[in-house]
Amino acid sequence: MRVLITGGSGFIGRHLSQSAVELGHEVVATYLAPAELSGNPPLPSGVRWERLDLKDRAGVERLVESTDADAVFHLGAQAYAGKAWQSPADTFETNVLGTVHLYEAFRRHPPHAGVFLASSAAAYGAVDALPMREEALLRPVNPYGVSKACQDMLSLQYALNFNLRIVRGRLFITTGPGKTGDVLNDFAQRVAQLERQGQPGRLRVGNLEVRRDISDVRDVVRAIWIVFERGDPRQPINIGAGQSFSVRAIAESLVRLSRVPLTLEPDPTLFRPTDEPDIRSDISRLRSLGYSPTIPLERTIEDSLEHWRKFGTG
């Protein structure tokens, strides 16, 4: 099967590309800037890399036509909430208009096995109760979440109106070795830095009293395949851990694993103006398709710390 992965150079995209190659598929994956093709660990081998800007309608059409993929995983997006606040127009052009460009191309060149959209828990926004269920109203509270809610609704619209098989996975926090920009790996990087100094130190932390739904990327990739193969376009499916974990427990676990004595030091600059006390998914629908998480958070913490010990900070 020929597989097209938009955003293949991203964190989840790299793991999904590797998984697709190992399953014997012919894989075409996209990147936006050449810098995305560097870094550690290296990109998976056996993948054909194509540069793509989702805002370029003609470029999207050319790639879809030339690839003629059997299956598409749409992960390409402006994925940072902070950047979305700074540049909402660019975020909407990439995430919303870019998705329209892609789906319009699929109307002319439909992937017969279907399309998977990487939606986001950010689309839920303000919820009245936990755990977050797929039936909850989408009330996003930042520009990034609004853009992901738009992607989600566009996917349903194109599936219903144009007979395209587009399934939606609403991803909660996904982490693992080599991720950047999340709390677990931020902590792990700092621990590795302090270890290299070879003396007792202080691990700077923000708000430790929140809880987050965190999954290992290796579990998430498995869930993505399950949703792609078995999902119903009419029903979005949460992809998460189905439980929330204390950020304090993550920090304390890394302190225990450290090779030098460390103490936790609150840093006011690392606190956010607002922070939801708890984010937790209901994954009953995903479990009904045969999925259950297999990688405990402690292993993810250990593997992430080992990554930063090996590769440093970049």
Give a quick summary of the entry.
This protein is α/β, with parallel strands linked by helices and 314 residues long.
Overall, the morphology is globular
Residue fraction in strands: 15-25%
Rg from Cα: 19 Å
Q: State the helical fraction.
A: 40-55%
Task: Give the CATH level 1 class of the largest domain.
Answer: Alpha Beta
Question: Per CATH, what is the topology of the largest domain?
Answer: Rossmann fold
Number of helices: 10
Order of helices and strands: EHEEHEHHEHEEHEEEHEEHEHH
Main sheet makeup: 7 strands, parallel
Number of domains: 2
Which strands sit side by side, in order, in the main sheet?
3-2-1-4-5-6-11
What's the CATH H-level superfamily name of the largest domain? Answer: NAD(P)-binding Rossmann-like Domain
Question: Which terms summarize this structure?
Answer:
UDP-galactose 4-epimerase, domain 1; Rossmann fold; alpha/beta; 314 residues; 18% strand
Question: What does this protein look like?
Answer:
With 314 residues, the protein is α/β, with parallel strands linked by helices. It folds into 2 domains: 2-171, Rossmann fold; 175-214 and 242-281 and 292-311, UDP-galactose 4-epimerase, domain 1 (Alpha-Beta Complex). The chain is built from 10 helices and 13 strands. The protein has a 7-stranded parallel sheet, with helices on both faces. A two-stranded parallel sheet has the order 7-10. α2 (57-67) packs parallel to α4 (88-108), α6 packs parallel to α8 (247-257) and α8 crosses α10.
